[in-house]
Design goal:
By secondary structure, this protein is α/β, with parallel strands linked by helices. The chain has 19 helices and 22 strands.
Length: 523
Amino acid sequence: MTNEHNPFPITPDGSPAAPILALTGICKRFQGIIALHEVALNVRAGEVMALIGENGAGKSTLVKTLTGIYQPDSGSIHIAGKQVLFANPQDAMLAGVTAVHQETVMFDELTVAENIFIGRQPMHGFPARVDWALMETQSERLFARLEVSLPVRAKVKELSVAQRHFVEIARALSQDARVVIMDEPTASLSQREIQELYRIIRQLRAAGTAVIFISHKFDEIYAVADRYTVLRDGHFVAEGALADISEPDLVSLMVGRSIHQTFPKQDVVIGDTLLEVKDFCHPTEFDNVSFSLRKGEILGFYGLVGAGRSEVMQALFGLSSGVRGSVSLEGKVLAIKSAKDAIAHGIAYVPEDRQHQGGHLTMSVQQNITLPILDRIGFLLGRRRSEEASISRHYSEQLELKASHLTQLIAELSGGNQQKVILGKWLATKPKVIILDEPTKGIDIGSKAAVHRFISELVSTGLSVILVSSELPEVLGMSDRVIVMHQGHIKKIFDRAHATPEGVVAAASGSDVSVVELAEDIA
């Protein structure tokens, strides 16, 4: 792949520009565990630097060090040639370093303008009062500069994920940020919103702002970044111009090995129908959804944002009210009124939102994994601890979990490893059907391969999987059949042999499919 950007910003005399941000020899340890060791990073004004690495490589620790949440044990940070020490996030912001995170942190009940200027509202008069009119005018000017239309008086809770990101970027601009860190900013965005974010990144770059861009998606990295820095196991590995390196070579640097098979789909014998959903309807989210799932099958669900995929799965797991239709498992009609009912019948659901719906961040790895099966392992303290350790160790090893110990809080793990814990938690219930909603969202290519390999191993034992994903290669690479949804309806069902990227995307965008063709597919 090539990159059209100039990989090295230069001064008027033709020499490379000095880094606006330079890290040298950064080390950080937690309870004897090395998180960062002798890490170096340089980014210049007007440059987009891709920070690349697997989950657990040290990216999050480095970002927290750059934003003043952590202080390095050793090493130095220079801004515009001057050594700095960030004692807290406020110091980092004053120095011009700010971050836009995957999970935005804002005050939902405050307005857009209030969030942009929180803690530093413009004041006037005596005694000093907040100048609301000036704050709103300045917010409007920031959005005009970004060429984004947002109502500055709207409450943040009313905004989409993409709009929240734009508010954070506006907040960074309001502080004259010299370095903007974007940590997985596209994870929950539609394609249109991603393109809008690309435009804003290029705008920041043209204005001379340095951008550190973190993503596990290589198409995004090559689309917006000029240079790369690779971390592996807390160590600096390499840096250079993206135009000079291929994607396979970049992957090898990142994981220390070649990923020959990202989608290790095993051939299994598909059995009889296990789960059957008929005429599933919801007043606002989906209508007339009917499908079947067979033993040992991976059934993919694909669709654009708002297609209704996740809503169908949440209803199937008993999380929605007002749902009509029937659900049968092994020929028996089920009455699923709650998640407890679904679990009792052998249905498990791994949600898309791992931090708010999937795991308990203040509990340990083993406590999370065994939480749904406490009645099975008993409440006697000695036996429970032994069972917790045994069960959690089994799934941690199967999923190649990277944790210092099983009693480590999952809040301390990387996003990909949190996802593995949540997957292990539901597998511990020994379900007959497991619904995986965006199971590899926000995790690196090495972790994705491990999750995919484990999914493939599970179905070889007879477990059936519903795989919901917005990543087309994942759906096509792992599914035996693909159901495509559009605006709350099933648009088309493909078998593996006939599921092409063009056909699936056409169906997802609403292209006409004949009723006869659809009926033949369902049959």
